[in-house]
Amino acid sequence: MDEYEGIDEVVHEPSEAFAESTNVAAFMREYGIDDYEELIERTTSEVPGEPASGVDWFWDEIVDYLDIEFFTDYDAVRDDADGPQFSDWYLGGEVNVAHNVVDRHAAVDSPNRNRVALIWEGEPGDVREITFHELRRQSDRVANYLTEAGIETGDTVGLYMPMVPEVVSILYGCLKVGAIAVPIFSGFGREATATRIDDAEPSVLFTGDGFYRRGDGVRLKGTADEAVADAGHVEDVVVYDRLGATPAADSADSGSDVDPVPWNDERDRTWDEAVGSQPSSFETKRLPSDQESMLLYSSGTTGEPKGIVHTHAGVLTQCAKEIHFGFDQKPADRFFWVSDIGWMMGPWTLIGNHAFGGTVVMYEGAPDHPEPDRFWELIDRHGITQFGISPTAIRALRKHGDEWVDEHDLSSLRILGSTGEPWDPESWRWFHDAVGGGDCPVINISGGTEICGCFLMPMPNQPLKPCTLGGPGLGMDIDIVDESGESVRESGERGYLVARDSCPSMTKSLWSGDERYLNEYWSTWPDLWDHGDFAQKDEDGFWFLHGRADDALNVAGRKVGPAEIEGVLIDHDAVNQAAAVGVPDDTTGTAVVAYVVLEPGADPSDDLREELRALVGDEHGKPFRPRELLFVEAFPKTQSGKIIRRAIESVYNDEDPGDLSSMENPEALDSLRDPA
């Protein structure tokens, strides 16, 4: 088959005026860089005869270029004497993320003091705007509370919070006192939350009574109590009142008909009691560059979450770099990425934009409530300029039709973003054309929680093919290798995505220790970070991903990614979404089983089933023709819109799917158990 069918044509060409106006073009002019290939070469490798080149040069230069402020200048940009696995960055420097993202912008003499730092919209439609001045006062109150609670530098603090404005001040308040913020996805249930609390051992946990989702109040406090009971460690719980179900709400409105959340008078305090009463001034701590800032959790291949350890200097430089260059941040921009504070993209969005005094838009609820145009309405109403979302969420919104998009003015958009999984060409084109008007570049990024950023990222002044990830991010020494670890990047072969060098934001080992860290990322090949993705670079220099290597379907000794099977099915006019899983087979070892969600108006039939099976066989070969193809109403998804494939596979095999507390739509499992 043609590896690049449907994605081999350049469909986005930025205008000369737009390309020249970008931040990355300004950087290229500043350093005499003529084209994209030279840009990547200069920022990722040492060019003979060019002193202004190499990974160390770039990460040193970028500090002043992006106006990142250290309290104390660093003595050396890096020490990698122990190899890329354990590089130390910005040695001797003192810095604090909170100073860079809030304090300096809230200073009396700062032009950003009264600029809006956050526009928040609740699902019921309530809107709040928070200035940098207000954000600093709130963050300082959080910092003073944490100090009163005995939190010191290096202590962990849990954030099991709804997406409300206060979550930003909690994050920044933790950073101010030198605490390690531990964001936990608000969609997690008891088991997943308890696992993270047990591992991180925070003594303070911030949570809420709940949040709104699809018009209903979803309770959070009870789940938090259960998780704390299972895990222990937590001595103080601060509860934000979103639903009117805390004692604070009861005292304000004794006639409230909202059932109160469970309460422990010895441990629990309301937000107003714990934080609102604190002084609104705090002197942010000066911390070593390598001081831990956040503990973010990412699932491991064994199912046990991995505690990713980030530093102040690392997340600050990486997030700021990517927002400035990849997403072309400008002073008047309004940046909205669909995420939760418990996922990497939440802190990434906040830190990256607030480093420049930018405005972030945050939304509480479901993407299609009360109607499928909720995001389009939100973009129109708030004049959003950058909009990021997962491919799966776009596929779900696309099925509702163009009319929901056409009713709104989306002309404020300059740049679109996506991450989380591979695209199919049809959905990418719809995102580019229907949402972006054919003018906005789709900055499709891939990296991970492990680096709080991107290994691959297009630049907005580049031409684009559908689904491409452009190429390596600036300062990221990335390659594609075969099973022996030899580079196949320039040969056009499919291989494994690796990093040949570290970057400032690369995880500082794992919270559980070096052994698992080295085994997870550095054990496949000597001194190569194995990211676990299938990657390929085409003859025109565009990079593509083909899914996770550990998700590969190994049929009769041949491997193909699930996304490639799914892409063939989604290309059919009758198919809206598809999921492919591998199941045991006596003959081939593994057989493909495909699940399909049809477009509105398309009906399941045996003829359509056989037509779709034949399509896959024609494209990938007879061994990959699905053994079964099943029609279902919906796929199980997370609140961020990602398909939970392990749940699909477990239902087919009649196995326990494990913790599904992050699932948005549990009823989808019933559809899987009774397919057409």
Report on the structure:
The protein is of the alpha/beta class. Among the domains are: 99-295, ANL, N-terminal domain (Rossmann fold, 3-Layer(aba) Sandwich), CATH 3.40.50; 552-673, ANL, C-terminal domain (GMP Synthetase, Chain A, domain 3). Helix content is 31%, strand content 22%. The chain contains 22 helices and 31 strands. The strands form 10 sheets. The chain has a 7-stranded mixed β-sheet with strand order 5-4-17-16-18-19-20, sandwiched between helices. The radius of gyration is 24 Å and the shape is globular. It is an enzyme of class 6 (ligase).
- Distance separating the two termini: 30 Å
Alpha-beta classification: alpha/beta
The CATH C-level name of the domain at 99-295 is Alpha Beta
Rg, alpha carbons: 24 Å
Question: What is the fourth-level CATH superfamily of the domain at 99-295?
Answer: ANL, N-terminal domain
* Basic shape: globular
Total number of beta strands:
31
- Give the neighbour order of strands across the main sheet: 5-4-17-16-18-19-20
Question: Would you tell me which CATH topology of the domain at 99-295 applies?
Answer: Rossmann fold
> What is the overall number of helices?
22
pLDDT below 50 for ≥5 consecutive residues: which ranges? 251-255
How would you characterize the largest beta sheet? Answer: 7 strands, mixed
**Which range best describes the helical content: under 10%, 10-25%, 25-40%, 40-55%, 55-70% or over 70%?**
25-40%
Provide the β-strand percentage band. 15-25%
- Identify the CATH architecture of the domain at 99-295: 3-Layer(aba) Sandwich
Q: How much is the average pLDDT?
A: 93
